[in-house]
Specification:
- By secondary structure, this protein is α+β, with helices and mostly antiparallel strands.
- Helices cover 46% and strands 9% of the residues.
- It has one domain: Glycosyltransferase (Alpha/alpha barrel).
- The chain has 13 helices and eleven strands.
- The strands form four sheets. Strands 8, 9, 10 and 11 form a four-stranded antiparallel beta sheet that branches. Strands 5-6-7 form a three-stranded antiparallel beta sheet, with no helix packed on it.
- The chain is globular, with a radius of gyration of 19 Å.
- One of its GO terms (biological process) is cellulose catabolic process.
- Its EC number is 3.2.1.4.
- Keywords: Carbohydrate metabolism, Cellulose degradation, Glycosidase, Hydrolase, Polysaccharide degradation, Signal.
Length: 348
């Protein structure tokens, strides 16, 4: 356990505020914003409610909730969210979480496949909280999940290291156009922590290959990645999915900058492609036409964070005003604000 804590300390030192001991923690999300978020999306059982998706809960949402509770320096809320996660989602025998919990059906879990990004977010948050709050049970749970991710979802294919979206359904053995990946599942900031929890050179290669793949995923007139990409031969939008830059993909630039990947050319290409008159949008990759304009401040903050990183542009006042609406954009807004407050306070 001491070895894990030492490894995590090394992996998380870059996340600590300047001048603060790495094992200390200060809130990166203010108390008012976190109170508003949890009043809207966190119920008494500890589940994060996706109110834009039938009020279901999922491993991604639980992972985000844990990470935000950590960033808000709220151990009690963290424990509440973790209780639901471990009792209702950690039902598989391999250490990974089932991806979906539906309050409208019984049993609440009807699909036991995992979602690798949700698993990584959960393990990442547990590692951060376990290190900051000296909770060895959190570190142990994080290590088990990271080891399972490495064994079950991090794979080599045609010279590349890939993150399978789930253990079932996406590999070359499962689909004619497999392997199929989702580029928004690479949580770049979490990967060094996964390497501390489950040591392997594959984690570093996973991050490098994820960025390299993004540079090749330039589909349609807007040169954007698809939500689901076949890597059977030349990368292309996967069969059976809409060829679109959709809601999940909106977070890719945020994940890049939060992970310390400030490739200005790539960030600008993504930002220009995913914007229509300065407003983010989902995009039909075949035609390049916007499908849905996304004006919520939680979506707009992706633009604002990238502009800060690329050229030092200050965030607009509207980005600093947090009033939760839907689970997903509200989550992105808090992640964006926490990052800017910690790494680029000059943009506030």
């Amino acid at each position: 356990m001491r070895r894990w804590r030492a490894l995590l300390l090394a992996a998380t030192v870059a996340l600590a505020p300047v001048g603060t001991p790495a094992i200390a923690q200060q809130a990166m999300i203010n108390a008012g914003a976190w109170s508003a978020y949890k009043a809207k999306f966190l119920d008494a059982t500890g589940r994060i409610i996706d109110n834009g998706n039938g009020n279901i809960s999922h491993s991604e949402g639980q992972g985000y909730g844990l990470l935000l509770a950590y960033l808000a320096a709220s151990p009690a809320d963290f424990e509440q969210i973790w209780y639901f996660t471990r009792t209702e989602l950690l039902l598989r025998d391999d250490g990974l979480a089932v991806w979906k919990w539906d309050p409208n059906v019984k049993p609440h879990v009807t699909d036991t496949n995992n979602a690798s990004d949700g698993d990584m977010l959960i393990a990442y948050a547990l590692a951060l909280a376990g290190t900051a709050w000296k909770r060895e049970d959190y570190i142990f749970a994080a290590s088990r999940m990271a080891q399972a991710l490495l064994a079950k979802t991090v794979v080599r294919s045609e010279g590349r290291t890939l993150l399978m979206p789930g253990t079932d359904g996406f590999a070359a053995a499962d689909r004619d156009d497999g392997p199929v990946v989702n580029p928004s599942y690479w949580v770049y900031e979490a990967i060094p922590v996964m390497a501390a929890l489950a040591p392997s050179d594959e984690w570093k290669t996973l991050a490098e290959d994820g960025v390299a793949l993004l540079s090749t995923m330039q589909f349609g007139p807007r040169r954007l990645p698809a939500e689901w990409v076949s890597l059977h031969g030349k990368p292309q939008p996967a069969k059976g999915f809409d060829a679109e830059f959709a809601y999940n993909a909106i977070r890719i630039p945020l994940y890049l900058v939060r992970g310390g990947i400030a490739d200005k050319a790539m960030l600008n290409r993504l930002l220009q492609g995913m914007s229509q008159d300065g407003v983010l949008a989902t995009i039909d990759l075949t035609t390049g036409r916007p499908k849905t304009l996304l004006s919520d401040p939680g979506y707009r903050i992706v633009n604002d964070v990238v502009a800060c990183v690329v050229d030092g542009t200050k965030l607009p006042v509207s980005a600093l005003q947090f009033a939760p609406t839907l689970y997903y954009p509200s989550t992105l807004q808090l992640l964006g604000l926490a990052y800017i407050g910690e790494k680029h306070p000059e943009c506030l």
